[in-house]
Amino acid sequence: MQIYKAENLTYFYPDTDYPALDGINLEISRGEMIVLAGHSGCGKSTLLKLLAGLVPAFYGGKIAGNAFFSDTNILKNLKSLAPQVGMLFQDPEKQLVTSTVEREIVLPMENIGINPIEARKRLTEVVCSVGIQELAGRKINTLSSGQKQKVALASILGMNPDVILLDEPTSQIDPISSEELLNTVRKIAEDTGKTIVMAEQKLERCLHFADRVIAMDNGRIVFDGDTREYCKWACQTGFEFIPVIPRLFSGMNIDEIPITVKEGRKMLSKMLDREELLKTDACVNFKIEAKPQLEIRIKNLNFSYDDSKTILKEINLEIQKGEFVAILGQNGAGKTTLLKNINGLLKPERGIVEVGGAPIKGKSIYDLAQKITYLGQNPDDYLFNNTVKDEVSFTLDNFGNEWDKKTQELMVLLRLDKVEDKNPRDLSSGQKQRTALASVMCMAQDIILLDEPTRGMDYTNKESLGEMLLNFKNNGTTIILVTHDVDFAAEYCDRVVLMFEGQIIGDGAKQDILKNNLYYSSQVSKLFNGAEDFVTYKEALTHLASLSRKPREREGLEGL
Amino acid sequence: MKGFLESFNTLALIIYLICMLIFISVTNNPVVQAVFFVSICLLIMLADKKAFKNALILAVFIGIPIILINPIVNSRGITVLFRMSEIPVLGDIKITLEALVFALMLMFKLINTVFLFVFFNLCVEPDRFFNLMAVVAPRSAMTATLTAKMVPSMIESTKRIAEVQMTRGVQLDSKSLLKRISNGWPFIKILLFSSLEGSLQTAEALESKGYGYRKRSSYYKEGFKLKDLLIVISGAVAILLIILKSPRNFLDFKFFPRIGVVSNEGICGYIVILILPILVVLPAMLGWRFNKCRFIRRKI
């Protein structure tokens, strides 16, 4: 039974001359679980807001065509479709209003006039179904981002909506919480039969339980169909939004492209015997080469905030010039604190930090900023000038420098030369991040410290960031990256440092650290479980291609 | 004690707050204001010692400028304590006892007003206030909530933005005040942009949660007990004193040209000064002394 119907729908946000939605034709049936895929700014969020009744009611703008929810004409109704439709937004901080978990869950129920007895019943039900029983009595400001997002989901479920819309719900939370949240969404979809429409960047986490995928580009729907058909279509058309596993198998002559790691493993075992897979000479050892020049040396570093719990305990780390290091670890492991101890934003309680052979003790942040670039988690914290060029010039002025040839080259390298005269706050998320990076890199290109740079990024932006960083690395820049994104770290870094509770618990070449790790392991290393030195897509592709060239022809591999 | 104070009915506390605010705003007697100040200090101290410490720091920041500036710009009064001539911009300066006492009264008045809100904030969580307001004035409640959320979010962002701007060469710790102020400008712009964007997202989330969809129900019922009635009565008594004093002027105080009382009914003034601390500290007294008696505890 159909619940939504859109006919030739076109929508413009106020004061824009390009459509956010362009000629959308769509039908959604009750109980469907749909994933929206596409790059940042392609119209996914706008489409979800339209389905929630927030567009055009909340935003205004121009709209043409027709859109119906059950029998309600969304374009004539002009108000939110709550309580029949609930929406979960990206940022958990911004969507919570009250100060306690219980009040937050009860709030929407009060808004729609549910009596206290029924509200009590629903409160108990949703708290259990989302698995946040132990959080019920807590204050919101004591929760982690992942817990906050679960509370926000519970508050929506309290309204008992027919439709749940999720706008990149995992983009601001750590991978463990993301997995828990998506498992809850899956359980809701399976148990309650509610209609779920979810925009998500990490497709590898949700494609396998979606009934249907809608791909969008420039405000248009470019694909609408079954998950496996989507994978085939994306591979054929070069649409970038496809997880590593189906992408890896896409070039093979096989009928059913695997979506999950488990399916991929099954497929591999059908095609190859395990011994062969492990012993093949095509395995390339990607060990890092020893670099002669020591860039960063950290010895017995200890740090705590205000004499409270020790955040960093006896950290010893040496990083060579031109190395690309990823620091992985759970929230609160001390990753960001370590970065801030390297660039002087925090002062070590005990221990030594040396950069370029000299201790940083006694050096000001101002002095260190001329050697070390630091990019924090939120690019918006950097941007306030009227144009991208002004933003970069602002930093140069602060250090008494002028715009020169080197700056212009940096702008080209960061692909900002075409948007120099635009307001940085009007740019896409990827461009914003590159502008923030340019605003600090214009002074220092010896060492780059990046804190969660891929948070909320789509595949295209991640790839372009990775390639850009590799470019810097090849020019001799040392890069340290704090991330939760294991696949990104596996793809682009040389070395991985694992942190837990303020200590380094693993440090080595990425293949050594990621290959047999239970949690911090890339999709590819999970696929080649036990096989040596496969952590990146490129390595796996090379290996499979080399196998296909062997005399004994195998079904499937021929197409590579 | 804080837990007990939080158990008062929100509406009763609002009535108490309004009555006390009216009382201090229409009373121009420095002694009454000083007694009120001591009483409200005691009340906050009993509620939360840490909050009291912070409130005292705030009082110093409010009080010192008033005490310093008012006697300088107000030259009324005949009892001259200090005289300076030909001060640039200000000319001749005459500091009088009357202006000083008037400044003291103003200072107490302002601090008392602020402290009343500090006390209210300790007793009533923003959520309870929102719940009450959302029934009466939903749009104002939403605006108040968004504003209340914006302030802590700005404070939280301040440190983060300062750090990243310092890595761009912004010297927020410059020795020159002028430089610090000019360097702070980007900082304020970013804070403002981010906070406004955040408020918009919160408003959107509230809308999607059916805010304003229909008449709200109330999950949390607040009963009206004896203790709530008692603090409403204490507020009413404060208003009654104002009404009584109007024709007889027994609380009024004359500052200029010479300090003095207006009414001869001094005894009434003494009575007020004796009653006032009881009226002000009553909410804490109910939880502190009377609560020790099992019978009264059950009743209130």
Task: Please provide a written account of the structure.
The complex is a heterodimer of chains A (560) and B (300). Chain A is of the alpha/beta class and 560 residues long. In chain A, the strands form four sheets. In chain A, strands 6-7-8-3-9-10 form a six-stranded mixed sheet, sandwiched between helices. In chain A, strands 16-17-18-13-19-20 form a six-stranded mixed sheet, sandwiched between helices. In chain A, strands 2-1-4-5 form a four-stranded antiparallel sheet. In chain A, strand 9 and strand 10 (220-225) form a beta hairpin. In chain A, helix 4 (101-111) crosses helix 5 and helix 4 packs parallel to helix 6 (145-157). Chain B folds into two domains: 2-128 and 220-299, no CATH class; 137-208, no CATH class. Chain B is built from eleven helices and four strands. Chain B has a two-stranded antiparallel sheet with strand order 1-2. In chain B, a hairpin with a 5-residue loop joins strand 3 (253-254) and strand 4 (260-261). In chain B, helix 3 packs parallel to helix 5 (97-123) and helix 7 crosses helix 8.
In short:
The complex is a heterodimer of chains A (560) and B (300). By secondary structure, chain A is an alpha/beta fold. Chain B has helices spanning 2-6, 10-26, 30-47, 49-73, 97-123, 126-136, 138-166, 177-208, 226-248, 266-288, 294-299; strands spanning 80-87, 91-96, 253-254, 260-261.
